[in-house]
Write a structure and sequence with these properties.
The protein contains twelve helices and seven strands. The protein has about 300 residues and is an alpha/beta fold. The chain has two domains: about 140 residues, Vaccinia Virus protein VP39 (Rossmann fold), CATH 3.40.50; about 120 residues, no CATH class.
Length: about 300
């Protein structure tokens, strides 16, 4: 059983029709609930995560066509005078940087936000592919355009659950204050964890040549879950968020031990606002070294 199966199993015990996820750092749970006919509202402060949510959760019908593929890959390996996104050189070789720079420029020609999201999602998966190699394995790599085409061929068809699913890219408290649902699924972010290389390059790449987009560190510093603050400050932030969500009938709060907060800390905050129904736990220590908990209230 993995994290997703654990989360789906717990949520299947709750009677709800719509759910809000203020920290939807990956689309798997939202997509699983969408396939069960639930209306899903997902939010992420990082644009790269929001893009994946938009492509899979909010998108009900749009597919990436062969023409869209040609647009994305047009002259992908042709170097120009100057990189539009110089930051790519921090993560990739010169040839790879030009490929990502050209593909990002090509995607700006796509008008549909869902087609853009799908095409961008595949490009970011290509980036994950590139970063999975090191000096000893680099010779095994395939050309990036070929990898992109293979990923496109394996792209699942969109699932239409006939619901007005929504994916947003804003501060978590603002997202919660604006939406009305039956269930809050709050996945507590790991506190003080260093930013992943993937998150950095994805944000730089998606922002493109736009110099006015905030950096991931600037975005995360304004949200509950990432600021390097004291434990008491984080608990106050959690209480503030749950107070905003007091109109939501059901809460499911997911937490992994090993961070700044303990499961008991979270239970203590929840009990200030409403009665805790159950605490579900699953030991993943053999695989990840942590134990996951979901508190329902």
């Amino acid at each position: 059983m993995n994290f997703l199966a654990f989360e789906v199993n717990v949520l299947s015990r709750i009677d709800f029709d719509s759910m809000a996820m203020p920290f939807a750092d990956r689309p798997d749970l939202g997509l699983a609930m969408k396939r069960r006919g639930k209306r899903v509202l997902a939010n992420s402060v990082l644009r790269s995560e929001w893009n994946a949510n938009l492509a899979t959760i909010q998108n009900n019908t749009d597919r990436l066509s062969d023409a869209d593929l040609q647009t994305a890959l047009e002259d992908a390996y042709v170097p120009g005078y100057k990189l539009a996104i110089p930051a790519l050189q921090k993560y990739f070789s010169e040839t790879d940087a030009w490929w990502f720079d050209n593909v990002r420029r090509n995607l700006d020609r796509i008008e549909s936000p869902y087609i853009f999201a799908l095409a961008a999602m595949l490009a970011m998966e290509v980036g994950d592919y590139v970063l999975s190699f090191d000096e000893t394995t680099r010779e095994l790599r395939q050309p990036l355009s070929a990898v992109y085409r293979r990923l496109w061929k394996n792209l699942p068809s969109p699932f239409n659950n006939s619901q007005n699913n929504s994916c947003q890219n804003k501060a978590a408290n603002e997202f919660l204050a604006e939406n009305f649902v039956d269930l809050l699924f709050l996945r507590i972010p790991q506190i003080g964890a260093p930013q992943k290389r993937a998150a950095n390059w994805r944000e730089d790449w998606l922002n493109g040549a736009n110099k006015f987009q905030p950096l991931p560190s600037e975005i995360e510093s304004r949200t509950f879950g990432s600021s390097p603050v004291s434990k008491s400050q984080r608990l106050r932030s959690l209480e503030e968020m749950l107070t905003i969500a007091s109109n939501i009938k059901h809460w499911a709060i997911a937490h992994s031990d090993g961070g700044q907060l303990t499961t008991q800390d979270i239970i203590d905050v929840v009990t200030k606002l409403r009665r805790v129904d159950k605490v579900y736990t699953k030991d993943f220590s053999e695989l990840t070294g942590i134990k996951a908990s979901i508190i329902t209230a």
